[in-house]
Amino acid sequence: MVSATPPARRHDDPPPRFAGKLLARVKGALATALETLPALLAGWLVLRIAETIHAGAGGIEVSVLFGPALANDLLALARYAFVFLLGAVPLALLPRRRWRVMALGMLWSALLAAQAGLLQYHWTAGVPLGADLFGYSRAEIATTVGGRAQPGIGLLAAYVLALAALAGVLVASFRPWWPRARARAALVAALLSIGAYNLLPDHFAPATADTEAGVDYLRNKMAYFIDRSVAHVAGEQGTATHAQAKGLPWTGKDPRYPFARAERTPDTLGPLIDTKPGAPPNIVFIIVEGLGRSFSGPGARFGSFTPFLDELAGRSLYFENFLAGQGRTFGVLPTVFGSLPFGDNGMAALGERMPRHASLLSILKDQGYQLEYASGSNLEFDNQGLFLRREGVADFISETDYKPPYQRSNYWGYDDRALMETAIARQRDDPRQPSVRIIQTTSTHDPFTFPDKPKYLQKVGERLAALGIAEGSNPAYTAQREVFASILFADDALRLYFEQAAQLPGYDNTIFIVTGDHRLPELPMDTRIERYHVPLIVFSPLLKAPRAIKAVSSQFDIAPSLLAFLGHGYGLRTPARVTWLGTGLDTEPAFRNLHVIPLKQTKTELSDFVSGAVYLAQGRLFALADGMRLDRAADEGALARARAQFDAFLVANRQAGSAAALEPAPAALAPWHEDGRKLRSVDLAAEADQVAVNDLRRGADGSVEATIVNQGTTASGAFVPLLVISDAGGLELGETAGEIQTLAPGASVKVALKAKLGRLPHGKYFVSMIPSHPETGRSIGIGQYHVEMPL
Q1: Contact 230, 126 (CB under 8 A)
Q2: Of the residues 243, 629, 714, 733, which has the maximum number of CB atoms within 10 A of its CB?
C-alpha cells in the first residue's frame, strides 16, 4: 500500500499564513480607524467653535443655532464615516498600530486644513464653496482666490488648536483605558454610514435658522463641498417632457431646438419713452459689480448706500423687484444681451463651442450700431471677451489700456473712477452714433481696495448718520465696513460718469440702463433669493415721466424689450423667431409676476426657479411677495407644477449646452408687427394671492394706513391685517393686528393701525403691512414690506 504524500510546495508559493496575516492587518486597520474617529471630531469641534465666534460677530443668533450646528457636524460624520473607515484599508500595509495612528493623524490634519480653508472661503466670499472649482480654469481660480489665500490670525490659531485637540485624542487612544473596537463593528458602522448617505438629508435647519446666513452657518463646510461636487458630477436631473410643461419659453415645437419660437414680445417701454425722428437712440449699459437691492434704493434692508443712484432712480423707470439671472458674474453678459440659457457652466464657458444664436448686440450691429465694451479688468476672465467678440463687439477697454497716472487697485485691475474717466474720454474721442456702450465695474469686489479708501471708510459713518442708523444696530456695519465703503466709492464714480456724460454729443438721445450682475455675497443675506435681487434703472432724457415699478422682471427680459421698443418706435428690424428666455419687461406699478425665471447661483449650481407667485429653491417652495420677501408655501399643486416647469428647463438647458445652434437657421430679421404680442405667455405655477396691500402711508393721526384689495374673482378667505414696525437696522420692534376681514371679489377695505410701542425716539423707521392667517399668523396675501416711514 502506497502512502499519500503532500505535493511539494513551490518556491514562489506564498506562505500558508500570509492570507491570514493580511486579513488580520485589514481588521486592525478598520478597528484603528473606528477607535480614533473621535480625534477628527475633536478637531472639527474646535473649528466649529471658531466659526461660531465669527458668525456671532456677524449678527447670527449662534446661541440658538450652535446645538443644531454641532448636530449637522455629527450628521456629516454619519454620512461620510464609510469613507473614513473603508479608506483606512490601505493602512493594513503598516504592521504596527502606532504607525497606523500616525498615518491617520497626518491624513486628518490635512482634512482639518481643508476644513479651515473652506471656512476662510466662506468668511470672505459670503457663501460656502460648492462645486465652483469645476467651472473655472486654473488661472481664473488663482485670480478669484487672490487675497483669500491668506487666512486671518484667528483662523490660524483655531487650526493650531484643532491640531492640538486631534493630537491629544490620538495620544489618548494609546492608553489602556481607551475603548477598543473590533473590525466587525467598523464594518457595521461603514454599512450604516452608507445607508445614512443615501437616506438622510445633507443637512437640517430648524425654524430658528430664518436667514440664509444662518443656514450657511449650520452646514458642515466640507460635507457641503463634497455634496455639491458629487451632484455636479452626477449632472442635472431634469426629466420633464414637453407634455408636462407646455407653453414655456423652452418648450418649442421642435425638441432639437426647445428655445426656438415665434417672437411675441410686446413694446412695454414705448408708452413710457419718447421717440425722436431720425437716428435711433444710443444705449449705455452700466453693470455694477455686486449691486443689490438690500443696500441700494428705497426700503433697502441695510439702508441705501447709493445716494446718487437713489437720486437717479427718482428720475427713471425704477424696477424694485428685479432679478439677475445668476449669483455670480459668469452669466451676466449672456443673460442681459442674449437672454440665453446657461449650459453646464454658463454659456460663455463653452467658448468656441457656444451654440449659434442671435443677441441684442449682433442684431443692432447688423443695423448700423457701433459696439464698445469697457472694464478695468482682464477681458478674458469668464470668457467675457470671447463672448462679446462673437456678438460683434470690436472696440474694447480692458486692463491693458490704462496708462499713468492710473494704477492697479488689486489683482482684478483698475478702479471704477479710472474706468469711468477712461470710458468718458473714449466716448468724447469717438462720438459715432448710434452706439451701444457697455461699462462693467469691479471696485465692489473682494478685496475692496480703491483710491481714497480711508476717506470712504469715514463716509460709512456719515452715511449711517444721514440714514438715522446707529452703527451698533447691525454687526455688519462694523464687520463689513470696507464693503460699504466700496459701495459709496462706486456710487461716486457713477455720479462722475453721469455728470460728464451729460456734456457729450448725443446725450439727449441716449438710454442708460443700470443694473447689478448679482448681489454682493459678503453682506449677510436674509433669504436665498436675495443673491439675485438687484435694481434695474432705465434713465433717459427721452423719458416721459419717472415711474416706480413693483412688477417682477429679470435680466432675461431686457434684450427682448429693447428690441421691441426699437422695432416699434424706430422701425428697426427684429427677428421673426427668437430663442429668448425672457418675454419682456413688465412696467406695471403694482406688484405681480407674469414670468418664469430660472436662476443659476454659481457656474455649477442650478437649483432655483421662479414661476409667478412662487419661488422653488433647492426643492423647497416659497411664496413670493413685494420686496422679494419669502414665506414657506404648502401648496403641493404649485410645488408639482414648479418642479415640472423647472425640470423641463433642465432638459432644454442640457440640450442647448451641447447643440451647435439654438435655432434651425440664422434668425431672419423682419419689420415690426403688433399682432399677437403679449407679456404673459405661459401658465404659471401659482398666481399671486387674491388679497394685496396697496398704498401704505402715514395717517394724519399718527396711524399707519393702507388699502387692502381682493384682486381675485372669488371671495377671499379670512385674514388679519398685521402691522410690523422695525428700526433702521432691521430689528423688529413690535407688531399690531387689526380685525379679521373677508373681501368680496374686487372689493377693498381701508385699514388704519396704530403701533403699540410705547415711547420711541424720533427717527427713521420701517413699516410692513401683511395680510396674515387669523390662527397661524403666516402671510396669506401680498403685503407691502419695509416701507420707510418716520415716526
Answers
A1: no
A2: 629
| Cα–Cα nearest to 51, from 8, 4, 108, 112 | 112
Instruction: Yes or no: say if 203 and 218 are a contact pair by the CB < 8 Å rule.
Output: yes
Are residues 417 and 493 in contact, defined by beta-carbon separation less than 8 angstroms? yes
CB contact at 8 A, 514 and 536:
yes
DSSP states of 120-170: HHHHHHSS---SGGGGS-HHHHHHHHGGGGS--HHHHHHHHHHHHHHHHHH
9 Cβ partners below 8 Å, 6+ apart? none
Q: Which residues contact 29 (CB under 8 A, 6 or more apart)?
A: 88, 89, 90, 91, 92, 94, 100
* Most confident range, picked from 424-428, 725-729, 760-764: 424-428
pLDDT winner (highest mean) among 89-93, 208-212, 393-397, 778-782: 393-397
d(CA 42, CA 54): 19
Give the C-alpha separation, 327 to 521, whole Å: 9
Omega within 30 of 0 (cis) for the link into 447 = yes
Inter-axis angle of helices 153-172 and 18-57, nearest 10: 150
Residue 4 pLDDT grade (very low, low, confident, very high; cuts 50, 70, 90): very low
Lowest mean pLDDT among 62-71, 471-480, 653-662, 773-782: 773-782
Report the chain's C-alpha Rg in angstroms.
30
C-alpha cell at 541: 432724457
Q: How many angstroms separate the CA atoms of 491 and 495, rounded?
A: 6
Nearest to 569 by CA among 157, 209, 281, 362: 281
Q: Specify the pTM.
A: 0.84
Preceding amide of 434 cis, omega within 30: yes
User: In this structure, are strands 704-710 and 669-670 parallel, antiparallel, or unpaired?
Assistant: unpaired
pLDDT tier at 2, thresholds 50, 70, 90: very low
pLDDT of residue 451: 96
CA angle 363, 366, 368 (to 5 degrees): 115
Q: In which band, very low, low, confident or very high, does the pLDDT at 315 lie, cut at 50, 70 and 90?
A: very high
CA 435/CA 174 separation, integer angstroms: 75
- ∠303-305-307 over CA atoms, to 5°? 110
